[in-house]
Amino acid sequence: MSAKPITPQSGPGGELPLELIDKIVESNRDEEDSLLASSCVSKLWRVASLRYLFSMADFSYQEDFTRWRDIGSHLPQVPLFVKDVVFEPDGRFGPGRRFEFTEGNVISWPNRADLLEEPESLSNPSDIKLPDMPRVHRLVWKTSSIPISCTPGTRQFISTFCSLKEVEFEGRFATVSDAKEFLGLLPQIEVLNIEGIDIDEAGSSGRSPAFTGDMTKLRRLSIEECETSLDWLVDDILAVSCPANLQNIRYENSPPFSQKAFTRLVALSYESLQELSIEPPRYDDQPGGWTNPPHFTNPSFPSLTSLAFCMIKLGRMSTHIMFSMNWCLRMIKVLPPAPEMTSLTMNFYAKDSEDIDETVVNQSFDWRKLSDLISERFPKLERFIVTLTMDFQTDMKAKASTEAILHERLHHFGKKLSPQELASQKNQYLWIPLAPMNPHCVKSPVPLGYQHRHPAAHRLADGPDHARPTLTNTISNMLDGAYTFRKDTGDTCGRILSNNIAQDVLHQGRRQGAKDYSLATLRYVVFKDYDLAIFNTSRATTLVAYVIVQRFFAYRSAGPEADNDLQTQVS
Fold first, then answer.
1. What torsion do the CA atoms of 220, 225, 229, 233 make, to the nearest 10 degrees?
2. Do you know which InterPro entries this protein is assigned to (predicted)?
3. What is the C-alpha to C-alpha distance for residues 309 and 274, in angstroms, rounded to an integer?
4. How far apart are CA 571 and CA 566, in angstroms?
């Protein structure tokens, strides 16, 4: 049999099973360079890759609106892939932005000044008409430089996302009326995560117009940090457009409501509420009458299964610590009956081990009293989770010792007690891709309308040809010479795939003329001559399949006949 010369293969993606292509692309959905490279292989690879390349649209710049308008005109199917939208003009120089202050890419002060838009553009979207994005479920809106106002551009922008379900918000408003009008533009969202709302003009919310939006589908309300009271959110919005199935309420830092507004919020949702997560007030900062726990007006919590105290800060001021701990104790005592409660979580934070000695080691707090109360109030409790967070430089031995003491203090909970912080760090692996070992690459064109969401992607699209990715160097980056480490010991478990193994696998495939690129075949080729037990995970196997397939792309089989022996052994 005369061997055919090895020539580059044209359009190889169509010969792979579609499910394998999808699996390969999905495994690399967080690697933008890899997605950019795989989108250039064939039509099938392009479609599979575009789903993840355009899964997020960033509208933090004026030019982003123009680009997406053009994408909608030339590639009308692309806006259908978008699931997450970001509007964050204040983050133009933040992590992940396209401008990098490196030696080779320095922005001068005049250029920085040119980047500043008109004030309205910093807090409100452009009025450029965008293509509809019916599959967008999540909107991240973060503005703080200038108060937000509901301009025609703002209304048009939000109306683009008719299926919006989740909003993550941080921003400023001039008045409560502006805030209510903005929230009224949102469709029937299910999740509202507020990272911060600031109202410039203080005063009664009762003077503002009535809320005209719809919050009846809201399932989760999360508030992280607000410098002004959010009583208006309860009194003027949620009480007017009452969520029928609010299942999760969470707030961190200082209470965002007065006690009156908080108890009203809980009373509105007590029948459906399943998870309640709150943070004890600080000793020196108890706005809205939070010195004592709230006086609940609802008779019970029939659906509540989880109660969490977000962050109990431990320090060397014993008075402050005792205030927080006793506040939690009283909160558990006054909480209306929750017969289905199965999980209680207490999150502690300390800068170093000395901060926790007063509370945990020296027993200034009556842990037995807390234990007895928990057992009495929550007879169906299955898990009592104690999370201890300390600064990264803290001695892990000291942390482990503290957890052992907590076990002793709360020993009668037995297996219900779960100190999670250390346990969650065991048996995890860290993949470390090394430098590419294959210098041969074929220049790949950049897909039309590629969304520049990352500095690397911006350089790849606009930089010199040698900086553009290919399947070869991208996958070599991920796999060739990769190592895996155990986080808890730092010991090297073993080399996953060396360049020699990859080359040998390539040689075997070419010699045997394998035409079936199924996952089983690829797995067999890898396992045949190498005892690589580390491959016993689907992700690792898929990545190995990826590197083998991309190497096959560059060559034709040496002969026309397939080696049936390979398929026989695989089956």
1. -20
2. LRR_dom_sf
3. 15
4. 9
CB 548 within 8 A of CB 526: yes
Sign of the C-alpha dihedral computed for residues 152, 163, 239 and 285 taken in this order: negative
CA dist., res. 244 & res. 334, Å (int): 25
Strand, coil or helix: 56: strand
- What CA–CA distance (Å, rounded) separates 191 from 286? 28
- 89-107 pLDDT, tens digit per residue, is 865 444 333 333 333 333 3
Encoded tokens for 243 = 């969520």
CA distance readout (Å), 150 to 65, 126, 154, 194, 241: 18, 12, 6, 18, 20
CA 433 to chain centroid, in Å, comes to 22
Per domain, the residue ranges of the chain are 12-49+430-570, 284-409
Neighbours of 351 (CB within 10 A): 15
Higher pLDDT, 570 or 257: 257
Q: What's the rounded Cα separation, in Å, for the pair 536 and 199?
A: 54
510: left (phi over 0), alpha (psi -120 to 50) or beta: alpha
User: What's the CA gap between 500 and 383, in Å, rounded?
Assistant: 50
Strands 492-495 and 483-486, how do they pair? antiparallel
Q: 429-432 and 483-486: which strand pairing?
A: antiparallel
Distance separating alpha carbons of residues 46 and 67, to the nearest angstrom = 20
* Pairwise CA distance, residues 546 & 26, whole Å: 11
Secondary structure E strands in 5-161 = 56-58, 84-87, 138-142
Count the Cβ atoms, other than its own, within 10 Å of residue 130. 22
Strands (E), 48-134: 56-58, 84-87
pLDDT at 142 over 60: yes
Strands, E assignment, 417-546? 417-419, 429-432, 483-486, 492-495
What is the distance between the alpha carbons of residues 543 and 523, in angstroms, rounded to a whole number?
A: 11
Q: Are 235 and 205 in contact (CB under 8 A)?
A: yes
Tokens 């061997």 belong to residue: 3
Distance in angstroms (rounded) separating the CA atoms of residues 264 and 268: 6
The two structure tokens encoding residue 511:
């010699």
Q: Following DSSP, what letter does each residue of 511-550 receive, concatenated?
A: HHT-----HHHHHHHHHSS---GGG-SHHHHHHHHHHHHH
| Region of poorest pLDDT, from 23-37, 63-77, 517-531 | 517-531
Structural tokens at position 361:
């080691």
DSSP secondary-structure letter at 345?
Answer: E
Distances (CA, A) of 235 to 206, 238, 279, 383: 9, 7, 22, 35
Per-state percent for the chain, helix, strand, coil, to nearest 5: 40, 15, 45
Question: No. of H helices and E strands in the chain?
Answer: 21, 15
What secondary structure letter does DSSP report for 366? -
Q: Is-contact 306 276, C-beta < 8 A?
A: yes
Alpha helices (H) in 299-341, listed in sequence order: 318-334
The pTM assigned to this predicted structure is 0.67
Question: Tens of pLDDT along 361-417?
Answer: 556 678 888 888 998 999 999 888 888 777 655 666 766 777 777 777 776 676 666
Q: Rg of the chain over CA atoms, in angstroms?
A: 29
